[in-house]
Design a protein that fits this description.
168 residues; mainly beta; Jelly Rolls; 10-stranded mixed sheet; 0% helix
Length: 168
């Protein structure tokens, strides 16, 4: 179980406007392959925002390796405008594009891997009034030893939390 405490203000005095969280893990498996573009959505949450809001995004999830060889697991935080009229078609963008991916190998001996990721994000100027942002934790798995049909189990535990702070 993950616990956290809330304060009324973020560093710099920004007031907390909302807390949005989910533990509804969206997939049961990550396909193992050689490509690094076969992401799966792990967790997602919809957040009402306005231009200039500061989002403190943190997430974690757990995978199990039963394939018997080392597998690299990468996690990324993504977003899209749910009210754009395009739905999940996008456009999507990575919240952590500057910092890169968070990743680690889950080995046969390690067997279970918990992978955390966190990033702050400022909603850009020009964000359409009344539109909501969807924050998505996505992950992929790859190995040079992959065999068609191999998957990692995505355990049904994890959490995505977004704290929304508004400019004073």
């Amino acid at each position: 179980m993950t616990s956290f405490s809330l304060t009324a203000d973020a560093p710099g005095g920004l007031p907390l406007a909302g807390l949005y969280t989910t533990n509804d893990v969206a997939t049961a498996a990550l396909p193992v392959d050689l490509a690094t573009d076969t992401w799966r959505t792990i967790l997602r949450v919809v957040v009402p925002v306005e231009a200039g809001d500061v989002l403190d995004v943190g997430a974690w999830f757990k995978v199990t390796n039963d394939v018997g060889y080392n597998v690299g697991v990468g996690a990324h935080l993504w977003a899209y405008d749910v009210d754009s009229g395009q739905g999940t078609a996008g456009p999507w963008w990575r919240l952590d594009a500057v910092a890169g991916s968070v990743g680690m190998n889950v080995t046969k001996d390690l067997h279970h891997l918990t992978l955390p990721v966190a990033v702050p994000y400022v909603v850009p100027e020009g964000w359409p009034a009344g539109h909501r942002i969807v924050i998505v934790l996505r992950a992929d798995a790859h190995s040079t030893a992959w065999k068609a049909g191999d998957t990692l189990t995505v355990d049904k535990v994890g959490r995505l939390t977004v704290r929304r702070y508004v400019p004073a």
